[in-house]
Amino acid sequence: KSTRSSTSAATEDDMERIPPPPKFENDSNAAEQWRTFKQAFTLYMKATDVSGTSSERQVAFLLTIGGQSLLDIYNALNFGSATQERPHPEYDFEHVVRLMDAHFLPKQNEVYSRYIFRTRVQLPDERFDTFLTDLKLKTRDCNFGPEKEKMIRDQIVCGVNDEKARADILKLDEPSLGKVVKVCLAHESTKLQLKVFKEGRPATEEVHAVKDRRRRLPPVDRAKDKKTSSNQAVQHCKYCGSDHARARNACPAWNKTCNKCKKQNHFAVVCKNSKTVASLEPEDDTDEILMVQSGKPSPLFATLNLNQEGIRFQVDSGAAVNVITKRNVSPDQIMPTSTTLRMWNGTKVVPYGKARLNVTTANGHKHIVDFVVVRDDLRPLIGRKTAEQMGLITVNYSLVASISAAGAQGALEQIMERHSDVFGQSLGSLPGLVHLVTKPAASPKAVTGCRVPVSVKPQLEKTIRNLEQRGIIKSVTEPTPWVSRMVVATKKNGDMRICIDPQALNEALERERHPLPILDDILPEVAKAKIFSKLDLRDGYWQCILDEESSLLTTFQTPMGRYRWLRLPFGLAVSSEIFQKRLQSALDGLSGVLCVADDILVYGIGETDAEARSDHDKKLENLLQRCQKIGVRLNRDKTELHRTSTTFLGHLLTKDGLRVDPEKVRAIQEMPPPTDVQGVQRFCGMVNYLARFLPKLSQVTEPLRKLVINSEPWAWSDEQDNAFQETKNLVARAPVLAYYNPQKPLMVQCDASERGLGAALLQDGQPLSFASRALTPTEVRYAQIEKEMLAIVFSLNKFHQYTFGRLTTVITDHKPLQAIMKKQLDQVPRRLQGMILQTQRYNIDLQYRPGKELLLADTMSRAFLPDDHCEQQLEDINVVNHLPVRKDTAEKIRNATLRDETLQKLTAVILTGWPQERHNVAPEIRMYFPFRDELVVEDDIVYKGQRLVIPKALRGEMKEKLHSSHMGIESTLRRARDSIFWPSMNAEIKDHISACNVCQKHAPAQQRETLKPHPRPDFPWERVGCDILEHKNKHFLVTVDYYSNFWEVDQLNSLTSAHVIRRLKAHFARHGIPSVLITDNGSQFACEAFNKFSIDWNFEHVTSSPRYPRSNGMAESAVKTVKMLLKKADESNGDPQMAFLDHRNTPLQHMHASPAQLLMGRRTRTCVPTTTKQLLPKNCQCQKPVGAEETKDGFLSRQTG
């Protein structure tokens, strides 16, 4: 008892002497806060001997010291059921700590943790020991294993901001972590000591808006400053907008004419006659005073809570540190500092010290902020970096970059003048010739001649001649196996762009699969850059020259004949990868230059902005010299020079380091709140899709889920709005939002609602970026299939920096798009052609998923951003064979369509979307379901592809016009199929012509009777025909299968029945006994021996009509084919058996399968190269094969119009 009492007394004494750790703060970085608190509490327990007390008392200490935030989390934990070993789990200290660990420390994403580690660099004013400690902390979730110390060592070498220290480290023979740390600490210590010797005072930091309220300082004597400063000092020039020595001969604008006011000695970018509303101009040659014309803005203030007290801070975007007065901080919170503050008026203030304080914003968010403590007569201040982190201000980095662009314009014009060839209008060329590789089994395809509207032809001829003169295309006169269709895109300014529709060629070309740079390798270096420039190649693809063989593959048909591309054309699926490979190879070895997709980035690194600018300019000059040497041409209009921030691979690169590009999450952060229960359900469905990346999701969304319960009335209050905003914030940042990895597959979800488009970019199911926009009033009237295709174009263009140059899986919930994308462009509705043409520069794999699986894109499309601008105007497509309709005819069809009830129902379904199943379609329009993917509505007229759908009231008139010249049935049908359509059009036109008295009167006198075809067989070798032919005094037996059109040929030494039966038995033993054998009435077949043969072998023998062999048309057709092949083999000294083999492997017309495939389920090997896969057996279904003597009725019945 005495021992226990003494221990208890000792513990109480220790508790009085040893202060407890700070309370647990559940802020945005709760995991790190819990790690720190747990470590401090464990030490406190050991120091005060609390660890030796009961488990229940340890829990009580934990919750008492932890405070209300930790107690709230404790009350929400699921402790599990009581057991014999653990009767009270809520008081089991080790069990409670484990549950807390599981709550605060979820399983980390290893790839993301390593990315965070590899992008950590030493900040400009950061001590090395702080940098080293943070690196070690960041390795905890990286799973480096035994390589941990090497990884830390490597990151120190890459991230340390002392170049001399890095150089000394690289000189070490075996640089261990200990040696590297020792070198860095020694350099830092030496650097600080030298600074003290040099300056005699500590370093200073700049504070802009701190106001001294005791006295006013005298004004600065600028005249004196001018006298003491050198005329040769580098200053900002108001005449050219760049920095240079103060002398006329140093200014590039001197003696130059302004493009705006036409006066001399200045550039347009700094012209004071500019109509810019809020221009920024330097007011004096010596002092740069940026004055916004709208006047001086009022100071921005924010009230923040510190130590339960509200303090009014001024928010200053120009301040480098945060400032607080001494009276607002307790003495024990102040730590010593050597920092000196330099205020906006040039005076310096020595602070009392520094303090790290907990700050709460007005919306309840908590932050840990570092302050510099100053005297009480100064104003508390929040600097830019902290204000941005708190959400008090938002910095538009693209606008910041544009401010520096004005000063860069003068430098840009100097660069253009020095490298006029690089930025010229001539066509450039990347080194080497491009060779396109076709797949071994690819079969060449060639389209026939083409026509264009008369109104288009003069401009088309001019465009083709221009391309030929520039050396981009060349006329072709020799035969070429590959010929693609031409597509003409008309731009808004009236110019034309010639493209090809290389669908067949794309399927035949092998991809190069060129890898993109690994992000982890380049971002740590780019993160240290302070200044950036971006450049773009002029006509990038056309700078890749094709070799002769590849050029012939790109041959295309025009009204002026065939042409081939001499340069890499747009539209080929392999073009982007070839271009990327060539560009990287051409720029290989240039330091500070990166090229990904079609962007070239140049960046400068340095301790100061001036050093970074100098480094950048050297790298830019090296790039331009390389371009000039190899003949590459750059686009002046797309050049961005000397920017302090720019976007690259989904990151916002700034002088302060890497940031997430705000555009990636703008669609989420600016998403309007839902207005009904369905909107809440869609939003919750989207965030549930991301639940595995969202900790504490159910707690955050609970107010929203209350609205979904049927018993709860709809009421959107502040509680729901706060939950909605917090959920969006969670979705728009890590760990939900991932970083792009070029090594992983890329997926795009896209969807279109009635009035908006939505898209999401994903890798491994985790989003990288979101996008949405409203449809324009014109786009709202698009057919649903056009809206869905527009969503694909929008997503590919929006995510261009990711999707260009690599395979991208595009997911849509509109299944007909898969069929549309496989068709030739001239078979696609006109508006869809322009959209498909824009997708041809991307390598996409279009896949269908039901709408319920596209939760992200569906939510984006229904809660879209309000801006409705089209980022890229769709071009008008004048496809060859397009026949324009006169205005009066179009108006007549439009009015009749509006009065046609059936077509009005059809229009409504086209605009809103077709049901998935045919039986769900209204009976009146069910006949349109098979070709629903071809139907669109434009100007209240329904089109099937390029053809007008004729209303019922005008069909009689159309039939009269079509038959006005009394052409035959086939000619009239071909004419109709060029431009018009309605269901059963073929049958109606046939009946109309059959009833024409004029045509009947002048019909041929000996018209053939209508044939009665044989019933079509259901399986191979069911119905077989035989006939005998004579060739060069030799007789041959031809046996043909009616199902597959496969025939056997046997030379007969004798025409006796026995000899013929012996040959047929061999065939029946090989292929099986047919059900029916059809022959003529020759003596070999019309005899008792052949009758007995049919009975013994169990088949029906049918003979054709005497003196009418056409009744055995299939056999007669086979005889004709065999005789032709025998004659050609004799004349060419060829092998007739080889001719038979090739014929049996040639696909039948309308069948897409050969006789050998239909009979045996496989191809047979020939002399033509064939892959093993093609020779494997396959189940080949016959689609009702057609005999040689098929009736006209049968032929017409197959036509669908």
From TrEMBL:
Bias type Polar residues, positions: 1-10
Protein name per UniProt: RNA-directed DNA polymerase
One CC-aspect GO term: DNA polymerase complex
SUPFAM superfamilies tied to this protein: Acid proteases, DNA/RNA polymerases, Ribonuclease H-like
Species this chain originates from: Ixodes scapularis (Black-legged tick)
Gene3D superfamilies: 1.10.340.70, 3.30.70.270, Acid Proteases (2.40.70.10), HIV Type 1 Reverse Transcriptase, subunit A, domain 1 (3.10.10.10), Ribonuclease H-like superfamily/Ribonuclease H (3.30.420.10)
Top-level taxon in the UniProt lineage: Eukaryota
Gene Ontology MF term list: endonuclease activity; nucleic acid binding; RNA-directed DNA polymerase activity
